[in-house]
Amino acid sequence: MNRKYRIDTAENRQFLKEMREQLLAFGRRFPSPGGSSWYLGDDGTPWISLNRETWITSRMAHVYSIGFMLASGIVSREICGGLADDALRGLRGELHDTKNGGWYAGLTQDGQIVPNKQCYAHAFVILAACSGLLAGREGAEELLEEALRTFDRFFWNEKEGLCRDTWDTEFCVLDDYRGLNANMHTVEAFLAVADSVGKEEYRARAGRIIDQVIGWAGENDWRIPEHFTSGWKADLECNKDIPDDRFKPYGATPGHGIEWARLITQWALSTYKGAGMEEKSRMSVRKSGEGIKNICAETKERGEENETSVKEVCAGVKEAVTGMMETAGDKNSKSDAENREADAGESTAKQKEISVKAAQYIEAAEQLYNRAVSDAWNADGAPGIVYTTDWEGNPVIHDRMHWTLAEAINTSAVLYRVTGKEKYAGDYAEFMKYLDEKVLDPVNGSWYHQLDRNNHLLNTVWPGKSDLYHAFQATLIPYHDVDVSIAAAVKRDFIFQIGV
Q1: DSSP characters over 331-363
Q2: Is the pLDDT of residue 285 over 50?
Q3: Which of 36, 112, 131, 413 could form a disulfide with 52 if both were Cys (CB 3.0 to 4.6 A apart)?
């Protein structure tokens, strides 16, 4: 296998770095005059006839906020910061509903409102605001405060521990549909809130969602039901007549099983802090005026030959997953003995308990990932991950969507870091090879967003290259700590670089 496909090689790091810089260059033309994001075409040209969506604008704010915190490359920090500001201006301005609150789904070419208020879009507004705040962008803190107020009032259901999906524009009529796609991105957003401003109640909420998703998946052979009634009864036949729906496809969506696996892992390791990591090695970046507080200085990006790796950070979880809890306890006791003031045995027992709790979630994450990859990768004799399967694991929509590959890259890397299992490193290399050979567009840049079963370009569901979010994150997550949201992880490295 080519070294540039293998995790933890200098060649793979360089491959991802070059790809990341090219993606930032590709997306530069996204801002409309009002700041909302144009939908980008095959070569990055704005398709101005399409709606300017809130979720795309939020993703662009998130990406370019992170871009600002990265080392300068093809696109400078200053340009990335300006592009992030443009998207945040769109969210604070023309996409914001000043009359009814919240954010429109989007705007049409002639500036008309796209009706409805979507949980999915509002979750991305929260993510954008968190990333903008970490990057120090003007107005991001106020945007986050308002987004959380709106979300808490209209979308979060405290009794159910899950999110409502869609309201009308006036927030008067709630749709009966409930879905896990919006809840998944809510978990992502809630973890970002906890990591960026220290509101741990949102991490706890993410855990409540996760517990229910694991329950549903475990009862369904680890294929996650996506669609539900207002009473949270799974609707397994939803959209059987339009199985390739962009946001509500029929059947199981393996890419979501893979994505949930990563988010579950992140939540478990950040929640059960003792699971192979000391409290001091968790990163928490918080903004107070101009200052930065609580920045962990223990772990920087690792070199190939000199690596205090995430695998070591997660050693306790690794031992728990493989059932070697006694060994893990002994190791923890010996390594920290000189720093303990009291009963080492009691501390070790507590460490075991925490590691076991985290390990239960890691096991669930592995089940989700392995079921999805088993069902969907090379399922029809050609490389790639099929879009959907039926409830027996048979492909329904054979198309390959770029975001499923991005999430497979992320999650295989994360599970390798946490478990140390070579299977995941092998998967990562296979996904990288497929990306390089089939999905990267060598002429126009970025990733092809949709390919058919023979890996030929297709545009029935995702024409063009709408945004950068999934592809961009796949160039970062494999080499950042697994227990923290990606913008916060990049922020820490940015602080190291500038010497604050």
Answers
A1: HHHHHTGGG--S-HHHHHHHHHHHHHHHHHHHH
A2: no
A3: 36
Residue 452 gets which letter from DSSP?
-
Backbone angles phi, psi at 477, to 5 degrees: -60, -40
Q: What angle do CA 484, 486, 492 make, to 5 degrees?
A: 75
Q: Which domain holds residue 226?
A: 3-498
**CA gap 254, 222 in Å, rounded:** 10
Closest by CA position to 44, among listed 445, 331, 499: 445
- 17 touches 475 (CB < 8 A): yes
In the predicted structure, residue 317 carries a pLDDT above the cut 90: no
- Quick check: 353 pLDDT over 90? no
Q: Is the dihedral of CA 56, 62, 67, 68 positive or negative?
A: positive
How do 52-53 and 46-47 pair as beta strands?
unpaired
The model's pTM = 0.87
Residue length, the chain? 500
Strands (DSSP E) found in 342-447:
386-389, 395-401
Token pair for 459: 């545009």
- What total of structural domains would you count in the chain? 1
Tell me the HSE value of 311 on the side-chain side, using a 13 A CA sphere: 14
Contacts of 490 by beta carbon, 8 Å cutoff, 6+ apart: 66, 69, 70, 476, 480
Question: What is the domain-level CATH number for residue 314?
Answer: 1.50.10.10
Please determine, for residue 63, whether its predicted confidence score (pLDDT) is greater than 60: yes
| Structure tokens given for 233 | 């009864």
And the tokens for 378?
A: 């090379």
CB 271 within 8 A of CB 221: no
SS3 content of the chain, % helix, strand, coil (to 5): 50, 10, 40
Q: How many helices (H) and strands (E) does the chain have?
A: 16, 16
Pairing of strands 117-118, 166-167: antiparallel
Phi and psi at 323, nearest 5°, equal 85, 10
- Determine the straight-line distance between the first and last CA of the chain, rounded to whole angstroms: 40
| 184, 190, 195, 196: CA torsion to nearest 10 | 120
- β-pair type (450-451, 395-401): antiparallel
Q: Helix 119-134 vs helix 77-92: angle between axes, to the nearest 10 degrees?
A: 140
pLDDT higher at 356 or 156? 156
